[in-house]
Design brief:
Elements (H helix, E strand, L loop, with lengths): L8 H19 L6 H8 L3 H7 L3 H24 L6 H10 L6 H17 L4 H24 L5 H22 L6 H13 L1
Length: 192
């Protein structure tokens, strides 16, 4: 009996997409190749070429997988009840970091690397826009409940600020808690 059987079917595709994200996090999007992804997944090269015709297709599908997972996490997080809608909004933005720090860092590196790639690769743009809109849609009602006069615009600003702070934190290996800074911004937005 094999201890770790290789995944089959859709599970094999998912394993390849997870490997794409690891490669992007470790060495960047330019380093993604069919061979490197197959090696990272521990699968034969034919697996990548069966599921994905091109590097662009791999990157787009991997970004969509990351977006789907994160949107599910966001929905679950926002399913919590909280008396303070601003605390819930800030928590929703920072919840992924609360997980094991090393794996959160890898996920964030892959995400922001692919977000920047969307500037060069139009096929990634649609995924990024839908993902960002999911955050705007989720946070807008919380900001409205907190008294925002323009919840959609405030949600856009809060998400953009969180993205900027997270990128700066990744670049500097800073481990400080971003929650208080985002909370200050959220308070200022709803009191303006």
């Amino acid at each position: 009996m094999v201890a770790n059987p290789r995944p089959r079917g859709a599970a094999r595709r998912d394993a390849l997409l997870d490997a794409v994200l690891r490669v992007v996090a470790d060495v960047g999007a330019d380093a993604v190749t069919h061979r490197r992804v197959a090696d990272a997944a521990g699968l034969p090269l034919a697996s990548t070429t069966y599921w994905f015709e091109s590097k662009d297709e791999m990157l787009t599908a991997a970004l969509q997988r990351a977006a789907d997972r994160d949107t599910e996490r966001l929905d679950a997080f926002l399913g919590k009840t909280a008396a303070d809608p601003l605390a819930l909004a800030v928590g929703a933005l920072l919840d992924p970091i609360g997980q094991e720090r090393h794996s959160a860092r890898g996920r964030l590196l892959a995400t922001y690397t692919l977000m920047l790639e969307a500037a060069r690769r139009p096929e990634l743009r649609g995924v990024m826009l839908r993902w960002t809109d999911a955050y705007h849609d989720a946070l807008s009602p919380l900001l409205a409940a907190a008294g925002s006069s323009d919840p959609r615009s405030d949600a856009e600003l809060l998400v953009a600020a969180a993205d900027g702070l997270l990128v700066a934190q990744l670049a500097s290996d800073d481990t400080s808690d971003l929650g208080p800074r985002l909370r200050r911004l959220a308070d200022a937005l709803v009191s303006a």
